[in-house]
Design a protein that fits this description.
The structure holds four protein chains of four kinds. Chain A is 71% helix and 0% strand. Chain A is globular, with a radius of gyration of 22 Å. Chain B folds into two domains: 133 residues, NADH:ubiquinone oxidoreductase Nqo5 subunit (Beta Polymerase, domain 2); 33 residues, no CATH class. The longest helix of chain B is centred in the last third of the chain and has 12 residues. Chain B is elongated, with a radius of gyration of 20 Å. The two termini of chain B are 18 Å apart. The chains are: A mainly alpha, B alpha/beta, C alpha+beta, D alpha+beta. The interface between B and C is large, with 66 and 62 residues.
Chain lengths: 414, 233, 381, 153
């Protein structure tokens, strides 16, 4: 019982408490949830982009294509594994693994709540930045090992791109970290520490420093798109130029690893942005609208969201035309709606409510980023390589430097 | 089904000479077709309605059989003065002007047309194969003048195996067009920077748009070697 | 002027110590953005293009040979299969050429119907171009919007002549089909529907900084180079030459309509984009005028059942969406053409690719292929 | 550079404009996808689809008079009409009619050539097959006309 009690009572991460059992459980759960999130993300991306493009997107596998990611996974697993004859086999084999491992390596320190991280690393942000920028290694390995022109060019583009945006990104992060030192005089690199510092300063860093925080945030938001090779900076895999870029020669499950890693990395860098500028797991207006009533009101949000989602699903199921062909889908949709509904109800239970809401707010903020990723992809054309470099070095880097100095100045003058 | 039409065997031979615009064998240089345009099908002789500028106001109701009319303008006069018998024919047919020139003069005349007469755009280069003729290939350059909004066709005849100077130096546009003519007819253009097949594979044997190349014919050997199938049909 | 080809050939690339050996990149024949089965062999220095060579013929069907073995009427459906995106324009060119050979003309009503159909087709063709061009540059979404609007045109085609893509809409001497009930209404409704959508495409692209950066100054070609290379159509007009066969040598009663020929100034990809966008709007104008002025009368000229054009040859060209589409037909007096030569605009325009991309980046090759608006069915014939 | 374009550039107005377009289109009402087997497109009356040899609805006799005009008109020469002269009525009677849909390009020339409206290109477009065998339609198949496919799980 003490086992559960720890989870329920303590407000520190298992890593801090030195509880290995819980740390392991956390890692496993996080890995599982991240995989589910990635799968959901692929579905959402296809769905949202389809709607932006006046299409329906996947509709056949499961109700509204809900089971499409699973079908895709099965398909990819069953596909023939093709290795080019002249490929460097070991590196070719290692590349997707490396990309995948690196993408998921950032997850343990993402603070989904005060207690909902595997551990609190005192150099958290540094670790995040370092590990996420390692992803380029896997891409270069893939491009090199394929022994083909398109992947090679894709990986070259990717390495140049990631290295250049890394700098702007780092500078933007530094300006946020500067802000953490305002209250206490000593800044922190710990992910949890940064959020707590925002709590202490009674503001999200994005609104801090007369707009400087916002500019830094925008710089980071742009750089992180480039960092994850997403549109409009998706040159390494520009399908109209390089077919599929660094993973042109990959197929089947290996390819799907790249795919998963891409989404995992997206969630990872979004988590950094959320932590640094958007108040991490903090609910909106924790100071302004404090008090018991507001706590309960905001605490009910997760429950409400799930109930509403469930309701939408049930409504959709009822609205589905009653054709024989759609009967299974209809029941599936209904069941899914009910499941969401019950999850919602469960989240309203007082004990669960408090534990869940941190995770909920953090996830919601990440979800907004994910939506933006998709939205950008549906809207923007792709930059050319030299223009990408120009944006990185001539626009983002000076801006980030300026913001950094501005923040320092602002911190002194304040 | 008649795969092979008989090109130089029109229904009535006496009609052929004046009506045929391609009159290479004519010995007398400027011999435009004005004599006896007796057409085989319709007995009505040609109305002079056809001789007009490009947007030709032809009579739509009753189609008279048109014949090539002599084309006399300052341009042709200048050319004839300079080249005399080198210009074999200057005619206009259905409002479309054309010159038949000696093949040794073709490049020179085209150059003059480009430089002095403002035909700054070479629309097309193509060829027609008349296997029955002594000089079986006819090369056609279709020129257009942007300043004068005027088209002219320059034609010349070519015997089998003969080469013709490329006009790539005049209009770079003929690069691929000449390659296509070479591909389809086997006519060689001297001075072309990279004369090789364009639409067919490089190793293909035969030139498909020649009249002796049946529509069902193909390079069986190439198909067998490169596609690994018995026949492409 | 004539030797700019050699200029480029002989101009040595600036050598630096960073230069490495050349990379040969095979773009196509299976490549997402070569618009079919075009193979472009790129000689690269890193990302910089040192030279290109196009390899074509993967789609060669011998259309010109087929023509020699079909009657004049029978060959008509085949021309639709050359530039299948603008099938109606192909049909119009062929019909006009054979009519010229027969020394006849379609009746006014047929001419007006032809104008309406051809202009609708021009819009459809430009929409396919816009969608795929935007897709090449990385904007995924305009493709769907343009195809949605093209669908409306295809519906009109389907209702009018029973086919959507390879329409076979016109016959020699006029048109086979009388307009269906509600044809005028459909066309006008499309015009009203289309203009706001056109603005929407522009909202997505024209001012977008990425789009502008990707297209401005890319693939520049001057008017003189265009003329020397025989490049026609919107590419020529974007280089500042106000030349449109519909104005220069009007056919099919284009002289009746009031429209403008939009031109560009810089001859770059952005200008070509603007010119084509404006052309779509002008097409709408023409359609409106043609529908409102649609005369009554027969739709078929009196032509014999078996066509035997007199001996002779004609060259007739029209302004297809991609440029000057010409038909050079030689008749020997029989029922079958002795020789049909198609002057394909895409084929000639594609020659400019090398000039336009030399010294630029790989990404520009994609943009330039898109902006040339090629259709491989027409190039390979 | 004047101030307005500069500001517009800094505040990413051009990008936001584009974003607003895609955002607006997310409404489910804008979707134009047809879920094909469940939703059928409306086929125009003049659509040129699967060929059919019409019979007189009253008598069940074929309308074809075996004149062979369709076979002549066909650019692909894929129609063969065979007939024999009935000694009693002294009229040609259709014995066999074959139509190779695998080579057909649905140009409609045969339909136009038919003087009795016997050969017709119908509105049916669902006659794809898994093998080439059934693609040459014989007289029975042509007279039977289109068989709309029924989709079921």
């Amino acid at each position: 019982m003490g086992f559960l009690e720890f989870f329920y009572a303590k407000n520190i991460t298992p890593g801090e408490a030195g509880n290995y059992t819980w740390a392991t459980i956390y890692i496993l759960v996080m890995f599982a949830l991240a995989s589910i999130a990635v799968m959901l993300m692929t579905w959402l991306e296809r769905k949202i982009m389809a709607h932006m493009q006046i299409r329906l997107g996947p509709m056949r596998v499961g109700p509204h294509g809900l089971l499409q990611p699973i079908a895709d996974a099965v398909k990819l697993l069953l596909k023939e594994d093709i290795v080019p004859t002249k490929a460097d086999r070991i590196v070719y084999w290692l590349a997707p693994c490396a990309v995948m491992v690196i993408a998921f390596a950032t997850y343990p320190i993402i603070p989904w709540g005060r207690a909902h991280a595997v551990t609190d690393v005192n150099i958290g942000v540094l670790f995040m930045l370092g590990v996420s920028s390692l992803g380029v290694l896997g891409i270069i390995m893939a491009g090199w090992a394929s022994n083909s022109h398109y992947p090679l060019m894709g990986s070259l583009r990717s390495s140049a791109q990631m290295v250049s945006y890394e700098i702007a990104m780092g500078l933007a992060v530094v300006s946020a970290i500067l802000m953490t030192s305002l209250q206490t005089g000593t800044g922190t690199l710990s992910m949890i520490g940064i959020v707590e510092s925002q709590m202490a300063q009674k503001t999200w860093f994005v609104f801090n420093g007369w707009g400087l925080g916002f500019i830094a945030f925008v710089v980071f938001a742009i750089a992180m798109i480039a960092e994850t090779n997403r549109a409009p900076f998706d040159l390494p895999e520009a399908e109209s130029e390089l077919v599929a870029g660094f993973h042109t020669e990959y197929s089947g499950f290996r390819w799907s690893l790249f795919f998963l890693a891409e989404y995992a990395a997206m969630i990872g860098v979004s988590a950094i942005a959320v932590t640094l500028w958007l108040g991490g797991w903090l609910r909106p207006f924790p100071n302004l609208l404090s008090g018991n009533t507001w706590d309960i009101a905001f605490g009910l949000f997760p429950a409400l969201t799930f109930v509403v989602l469930g309701g939408v699903c049930i409504a959709l199921a009822i609205k589905m035309p009653g054709i024989v062909q759609l009967r299974i889908q209809k029941f599936g949709m209904l069941a899914f709606g009910l499941l969401l509904f019950f999850i919602g109800v469960l989240f309203a239970v007082p004990g669960v409510r408090e534990r869940v809401q941190d995770i909920y707010w953090f996830s919601l903020k990440i979800a907004i980023f994910m939506y933006l990723y998709i939205w950008y992809r549906a809207t923007f054309p792709r930059y050319r390589f030299d223009q990408l470099m120009k944006v990185g070095w001539k626009v983002l880097l000076p801006t980030a430097l300026g913001v950094l100095m501005g923040t320092a100045l602002w911190g002194v003058l304040r | 089904m008649p795969d092979e039409t008989k090109p130089n065997d029109p229904t009535s031979p006496e009609a052929a000479k004046p009506a045929e615009p391609k009159a290479e064998e004519k010995p007398a240089p400027p011999a435009p077709a004005e004599a006896k345009p007796a057409a085989p099908a319709t007995p009505k002789p040609a109305a002079p309605a056809a001789a007009a500028k490009p947007p030709a106001p032809t009579a739509p109701a009753k189609p008279a059989v048109p014949t090539p009319q002599p084309w006399e303008t300052e341009l042709t006069a200048r050319l004839k003065k300079k080249y005399g018998s080198g210009i074999r024919e200057t005619s206009t047919y259905l409002g479309q002007n054309y010159l038949v020139v000696d093949r040794s003069l073709a490049h020179e005349i085209l150059e003059i047309l480009r430089d002095d007469e403002d035909f700054d755009y070479c629309v097309d280069v193509t060829a027609v194969h008349y296997p029955k003729k002594e000089e079986p290939f006819e090369i056609v350059w279709i020129l257009y003048s942007f300043p004068n909004n005027m088209r002219v066709r320059v034609k010349t005849a070519l015997p089998e195996g003969a080469e013709i100077p490329s006009v790539f130096d005049l209009w770079p546009t003929v690069d691929w067009l000449e390659r296509e003519v070479f591909d389809m007819f086997g006519i060689k253009f001297t001075g072309h920077p990279g004369l090789k097949r364009i639409l067919l594979p490089d190793e293909w044997k035969g030139h498909p748009l020649r009249k002796d190349y049946s529509i069902l014919q193909q390079d069986k050997e190439w198909v067998q070697i490169n596609l690994g199938i018995e026949s492409g049909q | 002027m004539s030797n700019f080809y050699e200029d480029i050939e002989t101009k040595p690339a600036e050598k630096t110590f960073l230069d490495s050996s050349e990379l040969i990149l095979n773009m196509g024949p299976q490549h997402p953005s070569t618009h079919g089965v075009l193979r472009v062999i790129l000689k690269l220095d890193g990302e910089k293009v040192l030279g290109t060579e196009c390899v074509m013929g993967y789609l060669h069907r011998g259309v010109e040979k087929i023509a020699e073995n079909r009657t004049y009427v029978q060959f008509n459906p085949y021309v639709d299969r050359m530039d299948y995106v603008a099938a109606v324009s192909n049909g119009l060119g062929y019909c006009l050429a054979v009519e010229k050979l027969l020394n006849t003309e379609a009746p006014p009503r047929a001419q007006y119907i032809r104008v309406i159909m051809t202009e609708l087709n021009r819009i459809a063709s430009h929409q396919v171009w816009l969608g795929t061009h935007a897709l090449d540059i990385g904007a995924l979404t305009p493709l769907f919007y343009t195809f949605r609007d093209r669908e409306e045109i295809l519906k009109i085609f389907e209702k009018y002549c029973g086919a959507r893509l390879t329409t076979h809409a016109f016959r020699i001497g006029g048109t086979q089909y009388e307009t269906y009930e509600g044809f005028e209404k459909d066309c006008l409704e499309f015009c009203d529907f289309f203009l706001p959508k056109c603005d929407e495409y522009e909202e997505l692209l024209t001012t977008n900084r990425i789009w502008v950066e990707r297209t401005k100054g890319v693939g520049v070609i001057t008017g003189e180079e265009c003329k020397a290379l025989g490049v026609t159509g919107p590419v020529l007009r974007a280089s500042g030459v106000r030349w449109d066969l519909r104005k220069a040598q009007p056919y099919s009663s284009y002289q009746d309509f009031d429209f403008e020929v939009p031109i560009g100034l810089n001859g770059d990809t952005f200008d070509r984009y603007i010119v084509r966008m404006q052309e779509m709007r002008q097409s709408v104008r023409i359609i409106r005028q043609a529908v409102e002025g649609l005369p009554e009368g027969p739709i078929m000229a009196k032509i014999p059942k078996v066509l035997k054009p007199p001996v002779g040859e004609v060259y007739v060209s029209i302004e297809a969406p991609k440029g000057e589409l010409g038909y050079f037909i030689v008749s020997d007096g029989s029922t079958q053409p002795y020789r049909v030569r198609v002057r394909p605009p895409s084929f000639v325009n594609l020659q400019a690719l090398d000039l336009m991309v030399r010294g630029r980046l790989v990404a520009d090759v994609v943009a330039v292929i898109g902006t040339l608006d090629i259709v491989l069915g027409e190039i390979d014939r | 550079m004047s101030i307005a374009p500069l500001l517009r550039k800094i505040f990413l107005v051009d990008l936001l404009k584009g974003l607003s377009v895609t955002f607006r289109y997310q409404k489910p009402g804008e979707i134009i996808t047809e879920q094909y087997p469940m939703e059928r497109p409306a086929i125009a009356e003049r659509y040129r689809g699967q060929p059919r040899l019409n019979v007189n609805p009253d008598t069940g006799e074929t309308l074809c008079i075996a004149c062979g005009l369709c076979a002549l008109a066909c650019p692909e020469k894929l129609i063969t009409v065979q007939s024999e002269r009935n000694p009693e009525t002294k009229r040609k009677e259709l014995t066999s009619f074959s139509y190779d849909t695998s080579r057909c390009m649905f140009c409609g020339l045969c339909e136009e050539a038919c003087s009795t409206d016997a050969l017709e290109l119908t509105q049916d477009y669902e006659f794809a097959l898994y093998e080439r065998d059934g693609m040459v339609f014989n007289r029975q198949r042509l007279e039977k006309g289109p068989e709309p496919t029924v989709y079921a799980r």
